[in-house]
Amino acid sequence: TLRIPTTDGQADAFAAFPDHSERHPGVLMYADGFGIRAVLREMARELAGHGHYVLVPNSFYRHGPAPLVELPEYIGEEVRPAVFAQLMPLIEAHTAERVLSDADAYLRFLTTQPEVGAGPVAVTGYCIGGLYAMRTAAAHPDQVAAVAAFHSPVGGDGANLISKLTAQVHLGHAEGDMTPEALGELNQALDAAGVGYTSEIYPGTIHGFTMSDTDAFSASGLKRHWDRLLPLLDRTLANS
Questions:
Q1: Strand boundaries in 111-235, DSSP class E
Q2: Per residue in 191-229, pLDDT tens?
Q3: Does the CA dihedral 90-209-211-233 come out positive or negative?
Q4: pTM across the whole model
Q5: Which candidate, 22, 35, 39, places its Cα nearest to that of 213?
Q6: How far apart are CA 221 and CA 225, in angstroms?
Q7: Residue 119's CB: how many other CB atoms inside 10 A?
Q8: Distance between CA 240 and CA 237 in Å, rounded?
Q9: Whether the Cβ atoms of residue 149 and residue 123 lie closer than 8 Å to each other
Q10: Helical (H) or strand (E) element with 108
């Protein structure tokens, strides 16, 4: 557990990285709206096991350290509305300006850790964290070589955000989140940006499919997420 200095205070964060003393490519991982919890730590450790230093910040640190909301071990249909009622004010308060200010601090911290290599980094995110990841990548084209977002409202900022991307992109959409028409429009914007990308609807999935502590979880969706994410990082961070 770490604390990251930002312009608005100290952000608590979780980091996972391989035991041995070499330096590793850095990955900034933005959690979904439910925040840092056991499943996010597990995913960060899984990614670290493939040779990466993974930093997972508490995006809503201005309201206190994680966990900000008491979450049940399993987030099912009966508890979801009450949990979201507590989380939505935090998500709404986390403006684009705050996302970008924090991204500066997170990348500065990540790239100066002794365990992190000198090359470019990747940014990944889940749900609302995927939008934060895209904003971070667009704002730091010189540092971010890859960005991946899963079941995320990445079209929320429109073509203006996408036009600023230079990173390699993977977008894994939930079937319940994205119509084929909307996917076509999004992919047209990616084509126009001239970036290397994959952007696809994961079959049989609903919003939140990577998270094994929720009723949205899809084992096949999570596997496809790793099958897309790991090669992307291998391609883009090989020299880190």
A1: 121-126, 144-150, 168-174, 197-202
A2: 999 999 999 999 999 999 999 999 999 999 999 999 999
A3: negative
A4: 0.97
A5: 39
A6: 6
A7: 16
A8: 5
A9: no
A10: helix 96-111
